[in-house]
Structures are given as structure tokens and as C-alpha cells.
UniProtKB/TrEMBL annotation:
Positions of region (Disordered): 1-73
Gene symbol of the encoding locus: AUGUSTUS-3.0.2_34054
Ranges annotated as biased composition (Polar residues): 1-10, 18-27
TM regions (residue ranges): none
Protein name: Meiosis arrest female protein 1 homolog-like Protein
GO cellular component, one term: cytoplasm
Species of provenance: Tribolium castaneum (Red flour beetle)
Length: 323
């Protein structure tokens, strides 16, 4: 029994030593962590380089901010030209008209649209080409109805107001009263500045719908004249002799026009009593095309004039009239 008590006392002392972590002073013992491992220089350099690479890639992935230029801060301007109502002045270059309009209105605006609507078949080819060279949007509208071009312009005005709201502006070059309703909506409902360029015959109701109005004739005044392209034309004349005098002059003229039409010839004079007629060609080659296939004998001589050289052909056309 005594030995058992001793063993129990020893076990209690051991358990007391296990759970009593305090030292002799009565304070708890502090646990000390091991020191941090030191990295070598190569590891430090790789870590720094990886950090710099990641920062560089992050900076490169960022998109640079766009700087707003002065032109982008200007309000947009749309120019719409009814060229059938306000036509290009006679003997005036269409490119010069476009340049004058741009210089007149684009001082405080930036060009967002320059639109010309017309039937290209009714305009001179040189005008159409100069409009293309001036970087103008040209829309062809067949003139199947009277107001086909006006309807296309009105649609373009409404679409411009949707894409470019206030403080944008529009310039309408026309004097047609059909645009009054659209201009009124743009000015009072959309708060878009309306500039009207009109001809002399314009209704007062159309002018009242615009914030500003100018005369088309005053803007295009003083423009340089259109320069002719290429060398001056040399007209050629074919003289037809020995024509029958017992046939009516109109019959002879119609027959000669029929024979020379494919070669670009035109009868300009018929001297019925002398039996002589004159056919005009744009050049000598066209005159040769008429005479050469017929195997006719003709004589050629020159006559100088102030306008161009005239070539006169003399041949017998009685056989041609009888064909």
C-alpha cells in the first residue's frame, strides 16, 4: 500500500511538470520562432526583375488617353447642296464653288458631312468629276418624280440631326420651300443651328426658319472662270459639190446628216443653186472616216481662220444621195 501511494505521488508530480509551463519566477515561457532564411543575391535579383517585368507589362496594357485636339472640340457642321436649285454658275469651276463654301462656313465648325444630291445624267460630266475630286459625297437620284432629289436631301437632314445633336449646325444650299418644315424642326425642336444659302427667288417663310441666311450669288461672286481642258479643237469642214439641183434642199440636208451622223458630222450649210453643201466635223479624222469607205476622190486645201484650222474636202456626192 505504501509503494502504491508513492507511485501515485510521482505520477502527479510528472503531470504537474507537463502542464506547468511557467518558470521559477511565475511568468509564462515565450515561444521563439526561428530566424527568417536569407535569400541569395541571385534570388533577390530574379525577384526584383520579375516585379519590374510585371509592372512594365501592367503599364503597357494600359491604353493611353486620347488627347482631344482643337478640331475635335469644334461643333460639327453638315453641308447639304441642292445643286438642281442652286446650280454651278456658267463657266465656273465646281471645285472653286466647293472651296468657297468651305472657307466661308468652316471657320468655327468642323466638316462632318458635305452632300450633293442630283441626277448625274442631267449634269455636265466635268461638274460631276470636279465634285468627286473635291471629296464631296455625291448621291445619284434618278429624276423619276419632280421632288426626288429634295426628298433624299430631307432624309439626309433628319439623319444628320440624329447622329450629330446640338450644338451642331447645318447649311442648306437651296431656295425650295419644301425644306421649310424640316428646317423649322431642326431649329426649334432639335436646337440645331440652321444656315440657309438661297438664290434670288426664295420665299420669306423659308428664310424665317433659319438662324442665318446668305445669298448664293454673293458667295460665288468673283470665282475664277473654268479652265478648258486640253488643246483647242480644230474643226474640219467637208465641202460637197455637184449636188443635184432638182431635189429639195431639206431632203439633201437630211440625207447628208444621215450619212455623216455616225462620224460626228453635221450639215451647217446647203447652197442649193450652186449644188454645194458643207458638213462640220470636230477633227479631220472624223471627216476621213466618212470619205474613205466610199472610195471617193477628193482634194484637200487649207484655210486659216482666227478660231481654228478648217479643212475643206471636195468630192462628188451624187452617188451617195442616190443610195
Amino acid at each position: 500500500m505504501h509503494s502504491t501511494g508513492t507511485n501515485s505521488q510521482d505520477s502527479s508530480d510528472d503531470s504537474h511538470q507537463k502542464f506547468n509551463l511557467s518558470d521559477s519566477t511565475g511568468t509564462r515561457a515565450k515561444f521563439r520562432f526561428p530566424p527568417k532564411p536569407r535569400l541569395s543575391k541571385s534570388v533577390n535579383n530574379s525577384y526584383v526583375s520579375s516585379q519590374s517585368d510585371s509592372s512594365t507589362s501592367a503599364q503597357s496594357s494600359r491604353k493611353p488617353k486620347r488627347k482631344t485636339t482643337q478640331s475635335n472640340r469644334l461643333p460639327p457642321l453638315g453641308i447639304f447642296w441642292d445643286i438642281e436649285n442652286c446650280q454651278v454658275p456658267k463657266n465656273t469651276s465646281a471645285s472653286a464653288v466647293v472651296q468657297r463654301i468651305r472657307e466661308f462656313f468652316l471657320e468655327k465648325y468642323r466638316e462632318a458631312e458635305f452632300l450633293v444630291v442630283c441626277d448625274v445624267k442631267k449634269e455636265r460630266p466635268q461638274v460631276i468629276q470636279e465634285l468627286h475630286d473635291s471629296q464631296v459625297n455625291l448621291i445619284h437620284v434618278a429624276s423619276t418624280s419632280k421632288n426626288a432629289a429634295d426628298e433624299k436631301l430631307r432624309q439626309s437632314l433628319r439623319r444628320f440631326a440624329e447622329v450629330f445633336p446640338a450644338p451642331s449646325a447645318v447649311v442648306l444650299i437651296s431656295g425650295d420651300i419644301n425644306f421649310a418644315a424640316d428646317l423649322s424642326d431642326l431649329r426649334y425642336r432639335k436646337k440645331i443651328r440652321v444656315i440657309l444659302v438661297h438664290n434670288t427667288n426664295v420665299a420669306d417663310a423659308l428664310i424665317l426658319c433659319a438662324n442665318e441666311h446668305y445669298s448664293y450669288g454673293n458667295i460665288t461672286e468673283g470665282l475664277p472662270k473654268e479652265k478648258p481642258k486640253g488643246p483647242p479643237k480644230e474643226l474640219s469642214f467637208l465641202q460637197i459639190s455637184n449636188l443635184p439641183t432638182n431635189i429639195n434642199a431639206s431632203t439633201i440636208k437630211n440625207r447628208l446628216n444621215f450619212l455623216s451622223n455616225n462620224c460626228g458630222g453635221r450639215v451647217v450649210e446647203v447652197q442649193h443653186d450652186e449644188g454645194v453643201a458643207y458638213i462640220r466635223f470636230s477633227n479631220q479624222d472624223f471627216a476621213n472616216r466618212l470619205v474613205a469607205p466610199k472610195s471617193l476622190v477628193f482634194s484637200l486645201h487649207f484655210a486659216k481662220t482666227t478660231r481654228a484650222k478648217n479643212f475643206f474636202f471636195r468630192s462628188n456626192m451624187s452617188s451617195l444621195l442616190s443610195q
